């Protein structure tokens, strides 16, 4: 069911208008929801709830979209997740990777400008992806430090950003069972100490 065909969602849009002292006609509510047709009713309901808690005025479509949880991190969270050096591994969205590529050179020379550039670019890219209805896509970018990879990749599994099969390809000693992975690692270390026997 399209959001504009959901009677309970239409009622919520109108009631939200009343909270802000604004009368929302049936036609206006339908148009408002038609602009949000790439999202589910549940996503829109949650976003409207956030708007009512955070905004002083009736939300625009853009303000609703910015609060829809589609699996992409918020701007500040995305910035905090970025690798600090080439040693660090990350599992990031396509939008994070693209925004990072545009501001990477500024990271060393002007971190404040880099942060501003990243935030502006990331927000724009996320907005475009959401407008197109593009699902979030998480990909790993492995840093030079092999010891830092496992925790990042296992965290991605716990957040359903990567599958166990994807991680098994990237971590040869990982089998999905932490103890089993640790045992393989211990066995490999012991074999090295024994001269490869």
Mean pLDDT: 87
According to DSSP, the number of beta strands is: 2
Q: Which class do the helix and strand fractions yield?
A: mainly alpha
Outline type: elongated
The share of residues in extended strands comes to under 5%
The total of helices stands at: 11
Radius of gyration: 22 Å
Order of helices and strands: HHHHHEHHHEHHH
Largest sheet: 2 strands, antiparallel
The order of strands across the largest sheet is 1-2
User: In angstroms, what separates the terminal alpha carbons?
Assistant: 63 Å
Task: Explain how this protein is built.
The chain is mainly alpha-helical and 197 residues long. Among the domains are: 3-65, no CATH class; 75-141, no CATH class. Helix content is 59%, strand content 4%. Strands 1-2 form a two-stranded antiparallel sheet. It is elongated, with a radius of gyration of 22 Å. It starts with 6 loop residues before the first helix and ends with a helix. The model has no long low-confidence stretch (mean pLDDT 87).
Task: Indicate the topology.
Layout: H1 7-19, H2 26-34, H3 41-54, H4 61-65, H5 75-81, E1 90-93, H6 94-103, H7 106-109, H8 111-132, E2 138-141, H9 149-158, H10 164-170, H11 178-193
Antiparallel strand pairs: 1-2
Helix pairs in contact: 1-3, 5-8, 6-8
